[in-house]
Amino acid sequence: MRKNIKNYDLDNLKEELKSLGEKSFRAEQIFKWIYQDKVQSFDEMTNLSLELRKKLEENYSLGIFKIVKKLESVDGTKKYLFDVQDGQGNLIESVLMQYHHGYTICVSSQIGCKMGCKFCASTGIEFFRNLEAGEIVEQLLAIERDSNVKISNIVFMGIGEPLDNYDNVMESIKIFNNPKGLNIGARHISISTSGIVPKIYELADKQMQCTLSVSLHSSNNKTRSAMMPINNVYPIEELIKACKYYINKTNKRISFEYALAKDNNDNLEDAKELVKLLHGMLAHVNLIPINKIEGGKYTKSTNENIIKFRDYLNKCGIVATIRRELGTDISAACGQLRRQNIKG
Ligand code: SAH
Questions:
Q1: Is the CB of 110 within 6 Å of ligand 1?
Q2: If phi over 0 gives left and psi between -120 and 50 gives alpha, with beta otherwise, what is residue 283?
Q3: Class of the domain covering 3-61
Q4: Kindly report the CA angle at 58 between 57 and 63, in degrees rounded to 5?
């Protein structure tokens, strides 16, 4: 099978070209064709000889996705369902969101997810495989081609657990970062994790400049384990210890995600527990009104409770904001579209 040429950052692409008996500057030309000119075939790389184009075609694919479905919200959010063209019919989702500071894309990191969070639309769907780096990068390219926009921010909040596909996610970030390609700085990239503790230490030691978001959702082990089985493996104390190490090492703030579900984790006692847990940490809390999934037991908190919760945190010196809901009319939340399309 041909290798996806988008799996290689520039340095690795130079090595690949060398192994084909080519000069390494060819890699820079190819990189530019892919990431700046966004071509969809080797034939369009007109400053390469016909012979080299043929050689590339024989050895590599450009990993172009096919759009299976596209939904557009009244607020401008666009949700894409892609066929990754791996011959297995695998589908993934990505979302394009427009903010005042530019376009953000929410990418998937795996086909399916192993985490089994009870409130998440990806739950109950079999895990197939990790996405390759090139498949992560192609989500952005496919959307830029289709929507004709320049994406400036990336969040790893689509389907999958990015730290469970650590190597490929890191490789994709190198490709996103490269100034000779997409040139999206690490500060414009967020990784969201359900709390894979050893990988948080690894990220800290790497001194990554990306933003780290941690899906906390509760400050006590009983409630968190009921929502997120991963808490049985890495309970809150261990998770917070790793987060403190990360903050110390990188001097970067962590964003804690907290999805508020009615009568589950949204009362004043919960807010008090959260304040205690995060006391003194360089942290920000992102409150998300939980999106009820079909058949799920968690329902959205009332607006009144959400505001009370936020105000309490703010009063106690913890910066908390309520995430604006985008694309609710097109089921833009994580995993929902794929779920609808592979159920029947
Ligand atoms: N696996 C990673 C990233 C994917 S989910 C993680 O767990 O962080 C991205 C964010 O959406 C996470 O904070 C997740 O907990 C949240 N999320 C998932 N399903 C949701 C739902 N139904 N309502 C609100 N937030 C949800």
A1: no
A2: beta
A3: mainly alpha
A4: 55
The reported pLDDT for the residue numbered 144 is 97
93 belongs to the catalytic site: yes
User: Checking phi first, is residue 195 left (phi over 0); if not, alpha (psi -120 to 50) or beta?
Assistant: left
Torsion sign, CA atoms 11, 16, 19, 20? negative
Q: Which residue has the tokens 């790497």?
A: 206
Ligand 1 contact via 122 beta carbon (within 6 Å):
no
- Superfamily for the 66-342 domain: Aldolase class I (3.20.20.70)
Tell me the pLDDT tens digit for each residue of 277-289: 999 999 999 999 9
In the chain, where are the structural domains located? 3-61, 66-342
> Residues 180-235: pLDDT tens digits?
999 999 999 999 999 999 999 999 999 889 999 999 999 999 999 999 999 999 99
The Å distance, Cα 117 to ligand 1 centre, comes to 8
The candidate with the shortest Cα–Cα distance to 133, out of 170, 160, 78, is 170
Atom of ligand 1 nearest to the CA of 192: 8
Strand partners, 192: 213
Nearest CA to ligand 1 atom 24: 290
Cβ of 290 less than 6 Å from ligand 1: yes
Please identify every stretch of the chain with a pLDDT value under 70, giving residue numbers as ranges.
331-344
Q: Distance from the CA of 77 to the center of ligand 1, in angstroms?
A: 18
